[in-house]
Amino acid sequence: MEKRILVVDDEPASARFMSLALEEASFRTQTAFGSVEALLAMEDNFLQIGVRDNGPGLSPAVRANLFRLGSTTKPSGAGFGLYLARRLVESRGGSLVAEAESAGGATFTVRFPISKG
Question: 0.85 exceeded by the pTM?
């Protein structure tokens, strides 16, 4: 019998997401836009996945509208991505937040409740 250590939910999309997140638990890479770092932690019965960069950051105006339907900073963007991501995460009892870093860049953090069993 398989012992399940961590369950977010039993849907295949979540299982694939969790598998990818756990395989890439922590990485740092250089891109044309700067450095990107991913972090994975378990805290207070939550799986926490963070992505941090050292790009231009998030202005207060952008942050205020970041997760609103139709809000985009891209010339050809539709403004669905972050809106839908947050809705999906929240529908599973989690949260998705964005924070501007004081030295520039931004951190996006997803938290999912976990159960052990």
Answer: no
